[in-house]
Design goal:
- The protein has 448 residues and is mostly helical.
- It has a domain of 138 residues.
- It has 14 helices and no strands.
- α3 packs antiparallel against α4.
- It binds protoporphyrin IX containing FE.
């Protein structure tokens, strides 16, 4: 073997790792942009209008769906895809084409999500733009899917070892299949709407079924997978129970399939069972085995991760109640909010601020205090929203209408702080360069 080959290969590997870090940073900034502008600001606008009029009936469903799509696909989906591409660097040699595919996928994906949002809001040539946006999104996802699926590690990962795949990997694979199924369903419905509907808004009954897949399909399963992978380390939990996690997966899939045929009582009961199994399987509320690892993040981090799973249980219970007693959308809406904001957003705020600084260029989190405030305001806003949405929409306590606006402002503050926390972190030097520059400035102070 040529003696220069080893160092050259190492240099190429470092260059690809850096290229993947840059790619991930751009995916994350794109996700933050969708979260803040088309997602949260439109959500806040909708909610303040609903609270002002004391009914959601006058808000264009196309606007509400534009908000939901920007949050679920534009924010959560974008984060998942970016982290998915970056995970190639942890799976052995990074193929040469991975980075260029990552950029092409990003262009298709973010173009598709932007087009969908703009079409729902302005309705410009919507009969063409709606299916086109779905095609762009699907194209972006498929590029990701084939790149990651075909990639084989050079040698088996140490964490995986011989034998069957670990539960976290199976959950993440099912999460990706759920993601693909969501995009296919979205494409079919977009096509049907463009042929048969009078507006880009998906009809209510179809949208309810889609939301079960979009919510409990890809984000929940992917977050369970990441939880099984990382929480034993970060929170010092016992290793997850493989048996219970597979049972949770099966119950969740059964719940989503039942929602597809409008068997809502069975669907919500199966999903509630899935949540109980997942909480036991991940041992989230059991006494931990080791001390949590909170270096570099706020020490409240483990508490908020448990809050997130508490919200998941609240969401599942409210969904069961909604299938029995909902009259005006308040129980369904509050269940969805407990899921999307209470569970998904709290998990992304907590785990994201724990891992993304390192993934996006070996940085340290800019400020653990900002992390705390983002999580505290998010959870306070979510609590007010979930309680007041039930009371106000369902007419149990009409005095709660004004509190909906309060919850919107608190949650908007929370997501703005979260975005600021990550952006300020990305502006810093990588940790080793920061240590060098601090050392140098210390030396020059000593010299003077
Ligand atoms: C940040 C503050 C947020 C506000 C003020 C807000 C507001 C709203 C409002 C007013 C609705 C319609 C009424 C209802 O059914 O409750 C709604 C629906 C929805 N929201 Fe949010 N939301 C926020 C955050 C989020 C987040 C973070 C996500 C996802 C990660 C999300 C996902 C959804 C979805 C999927 C829907 C249903 C859309 C549809 O009907 O197709 N929201 N939101």
């Amino acid at each position: 073997m040529d003696s220069g080959e080893g160092p050259m290969r190492a240099t190429t590997a470092v260059a690809r790792e850096l290229a993947l870090q840059r790619l991930l940073t751009v995916w994350i900034i794109t996700g933050l942009t969708f979260m803040l502008l088309p997602g949260t600001f439109l959500g806040v606008w909708n909610l303040i209008s609903i609270a002002g009029e004391r009914t959601p009936a006058h808000i264009d469903p196309a606007w509400i769906q534009a908000h939901g799509h920007a949050q679920l696909f534009g924010w959560i989906g974008t984060f998942i895809l970016g982290i998915g591409f970056y995970s190639l660097s942890k799976m052995g040699a990074i193929p040469e084409f991975a980075v260029s595919r990552g950029w092409l996928s990003w262009a298709l994906w973010s173009g598709g999500v932007t087009l969908r949002w703009a079409t729902n809001v302005w309705q410009w040539h919507w009969r063409w733009m709606l299916p086109l946006s779905a095609l762009f999104e699907l194209g972006g996802f498929l590029l990701f899917f084939i790149t990651v699926r075909r990639h084989r590690p050079e040698k088996p990962l140490a964490a995986v070892g011989p034998g069957p795949r670990p539960a976290w990997m199976v959950l993440v694979v099912f999460g990706s299949i759920g993601f693909l199924a969501s995009l296919l369903a979205n494409g079919v419905v977009a096509m049907q709407s463009s042929i048969a509907n009078a507006s880009p808004a998906v009809p209510h009954a179809v949208n309810q079924r889609l939301l079960a897949l979009f919510g409990w399909g890809f984000p929940v399963l992917t977050i369970w997978g990441f939880s099984a992978r990382w929480l034993p380390v970060f929170l010092g939990l016992h290793p997850p129970s493989v048996r219970l996690m597979y049972a949770a997966l099966a119950a969740d899939v059964a719940g989503i399939l039942a929602a597809g045929v409008d068997a809502w009582r069975f669907s919500t009961a199966a999903i509630a069972a899935a949540v109980v199994l997942a909480c036991y399987g991940l041992r989230i509320f059991a006494p931990p085995l080791n001390a949590p690892k909170v270096t570099g993040v706020h020490r409240s981090f483990p508490v908020f991760v448990r809050f997130a799973y508490g919200w998941l249980a609240v969401s599942a219970s409210l969904a069961v109640s909604a299938s029995l007693w909902d009259r005006a959308g308040g129980l369904w809406g509050s269940s969805r909010h407990a899921l999307t904001v209470g569970f998904m957003s709290t998990m992304v705020f907590a785990i994201g601020q724990r891992v993304l600084p390192a993934f996006c260029g070996m940085r340290v989190l800019y400020s653990p205090a900002l992390m705390f405030w983002s999580l505290a305001l998010l959870n306070a806003g979510c609590l007010i929203r979930v309680v007041s949405e039930i009371g106000a929409y369902e007419s149990y306590a009409p005095g709660l209408w004004p509190l909906l606006s309060v919850s919107a402002i608190l949650e908007m503050a929370a997501v703005t702080i979260f975005a600021a926390s990550l952006l300020l972190t990305f502006r810093q030097l990588p940790a080793h360069l920061m240590a060098n520059s601090q050392e140098k400035s210390g030396q020059s102070v000593m010299a003077s």
